[in-house]
Amino acid sequence: MTPPSPESAALAHLIGFGRELRRRGLAVGTGRIVTFCRAAACLGALDREDLYWAARAALISRPEDVEAFDAAFREWFGGGMRIVLRVPPEVADEAEAAVRAAAAGEEGLELEEGRVLAREWHEPGEGDEAEGEAAIRIVASASEVLRSKSFADLTEEERERVARLIRRLAVQVPIRRSRRLRPSPGGSRFDVKRTLRRSLRTQGEPFHRAWRARGTRARPLVLLLDISGSMAPYSRALVQFGYAAMAAGRRVEVFCFGTRLTRVTRVLRTRDPDRAIHEIGRRVADWEGGTRIGESLKALLDGWSQRAALRGSVVVICSDGLERGEPDLLRSQMAKLRRLAHRIVWVNPLKGSPRYQPLARGMAAALPSIDVFLPGHNLESLEELSRALAG
What we know:
Elements: H1 6-23, H2 30-43, E1 45-46, H3 48-59, H4 66-77, E2 82-86, H5 89-103, E3 117-122, E4 135-140, H6 142-148, H7 156-167, E5 175-183, E6 189-190, H8 192-199, E7 211-218, E8 221-226, H9 232-248, E9 252-257, E10 261-263, H10 273-283, H11 293-302, H12 304-310, E11 314-318, H13 327-340, E12 343-347, H14 361-366, E13 372-374, H15 379-390
Parallel strand pairs: 2-4, 8-9, 8-11, 11-12, 12-13
Antiparallel strand pairs: 1-2, 3-4, 5-7, 6-7, 9-10
């Protein structure tokens, strides 16, 4: 019989703690065990104290259970051990079925596509914080490898897995402060009218003061995705990112460009991402063709409806900058775009190489108008892009 993999053992260790609490008479249902695993994923990097409070909040609710819980936690995770836990968020969704099966007592903890947790035991050594202290480190397995692997180096099977991970990205749409004041307990502006209305409940005495603050609203986000031949290893992943961005907010516009500009916003609103990608490939006539970034930007800026969407927006241009058109046209259109947009983010997959320098004519022409310059060659860089959008 093949021994369980470290990945399976790690998840079993977390689930097993919930089952151990059951064995000790605590009312820990399957749903609570699932919540515990999902909490670990949401919190990301945890030390021993974080793990304790995540488990306590998720697995028990009665004060009289705390003593038994503490004893079980010390025994299960080791009283003198140092724990470092890092769970990627995407694991939680895929682990849920396995958690429920294991919590019900079923055999087998192998997760879909091996995207699970790896558990490593470290013997006490010079680097440990206390003598005789062991350490448990739970780290990501296959999904961590995929996060750092270039889209250009993926196998077909890995491309499918990465596509699903990209679609699950929680893209952070940009926001801005609105001029409109809204009720806010932590606001800095005194709300006289609401304070007077509240005072009617207390015989006219203003015991409860009301405050207002400026609210926030989503800033327009415009994605321009290069689908030319030189971007072939990356273009489908970037379109998948566009799909994830569409799911994150309403004020999102997505365009594809090669030798001409094509709006694909409506196509990406479909609930079936695979169908959306297929439809884009059918509609975009110049897929994997040439690159004319300057002409595509001119088409964007000349369209009155698109121009309105650009004002005050965050514009993301995903391209390697290998322009076949006139660099002067690209330079002038980027300058116009800079005057309209709040911020311009350029995502270049070639920047993922440590030896890359933006010497191509198109990239050099665009650089003066760019606010943020990022790589876009793997899942990790798309996560960085998502964070940059909110900044």
